[in-house]
Amino acid sequence: MTEPRDERDLQGSGSNTRKVFIKTYGCQMNVYDSQRMGDALSKDGYEPTASMEDADLVLLNTCHIREKAAEKIYSELGRIRLLKAERAQRGKDLRVGIAGCVAQAEGAEIIERAPVVDLVIGPQTYHRLPDALARVARGERVVDTDYAVEDKFEHLPETEARQIRARGVTAFLTVQEGCDKFCTFCVVPYTRGSEVSRPMAQIVAEARQLAAAGVREITLLGQNVNAWSGETPGGVTVGLGGLLRTLAGIEGIARLRYTTSHPRDMDDDLIAAHAELRALMPYLHLPVQSGSDRILKAMNRRHKAADYLRLLDRIRHARPDIALSGDFIVGFPGETEADFMDTMRLIEAVSYASAYSFKYSPRPGTPGAEMDGHVDEAVKTERLERLQGLLRHQQGAFADSLVGRSIEVLVEKPGRHPGQIVGRSPFLQPVVLPASAGAVGDIVEARIASANPNSLMAEGAPPALAEAMPLRAIA
Ligand code: 5AD
Ligand code: SF4
């Protein structure tokens, strides 16, 4: 729907184009949601801008997974308040919205605490953004956090081909939302609700649209992406393996990935898909969180360390070159030095190609926050340093193991220096190549000349700064 003309006249420079600045915090699911918000707003006459100072509307798409996430938002709002005041002096307006998991968790409290905020919108209601803004234009302060993920999937705005092209040759596609696992440290089941799978036909239609606009690699997203299930047009129920097989058949799609998975949902068919599908990249993010059975139980992970290791054996059997990644939490309540050493031993046993690790931070409303035996901050810091030292070493060793080998690289964008282009290895590492190697969207064969833990240099590439490792979703 379009907003009344007088709303437009209130805004910006007097031209009909209004500008939106969206700042994204947290995981890839928020990146996807920010793009969908951009799409919904584009139909409503908003152009994206990379600068808050230029914007008529500022949206913060927030994350609530760890401590201080909400505090960060309030301090950002302090800055925005000054900007809004300065606009008001010039007789102009700036609209401010909070979206994402902090919006879902705190709702109306945000409006009370931060008068600068006009709109609070939860992760399942972005399709209602134009309506909500129309209400804001009529002087209301809007809180819209009622959630029904099915509705969201039903109403996801379509992305125009030119917008897909502007976003590049790799794309995210959300196929599942929510979580029923209730790990005792995690807020996700409360902020994103229970597990819902997006219907297969919608996913396939979106993937086709992405491919037609030139996308070569799709990463399927979900808080528990491997819990996805759906029905084929013939009425057969399939899991993520079946979905991947269908998507691999779409012309133009050369690479598929999915994130983030839970060990309990890694079924035989999905493992078999890793053996069968050339398009399915040999990289798997499979968080274990801890290597101690006692702590895994307290975390309600519902698997033991040995189950996880056996599962990895089966996956490696199906796809011997698979690069493994994970998430770790140190200092969960009750974690002793012996428990921590179990985690270190598990990491030694697996040998990760990359991993993410965090100090436990109590989240209000989760069972973990109420447990006894909270670990001293200094102990958490010290354990995290040891754990990250080991993971860094493994990541470096994995990168080094590729030196002298030829690997396929999907070219994504120009490099930071003249004469360079940057792509990604099958294992998700950024690879710097000489510009002559190929064009954006090509998959080229590159011989790796040198490596550092964060990026690879192909033979013939001019020297470069390291590229950062990518974001990833939650599980
Ligand atoms: N404290 C620390 N880390 C957490 N994570 C989730 N909740 C917490 C918390 N309360 C981590 C987990 C998860 C990743 C996305 O964030 O490792 O896999
Ligand atoms: Fe769900 Fe992952 Fe959070 Fe566990 S850590 S509750 S699996 S989102």
Unreliable spans are: 1-14, 465-475
User: Would you give the CATH topology of the largest domain?
Assistant: Rossmann fold
Q: Which shape, going by the Cα principal axes?
A: globular
- The total strand number stands at 21
Mean pLDDT: 91
The first-to-last residue Cα distance is: 36 Å
Strand content: 15-25%
Rg, please?
A: 23 Å
Tell me roughly what share of residues is in helical segments: 25-40%
DSSP helix count?
A: 17
Bound molecules: 5'-deoxyadenosine, iron/sulfur cluster
CATH second-level architecture of the largest domain: 3-Layer(aba) Sandwich
Q: What CATH first level of the largest domain would be assigned? A: Alpha Beta
The name of the CATH superfamily of the largest domain reads: Methylthiotransferase, N-terminal domain
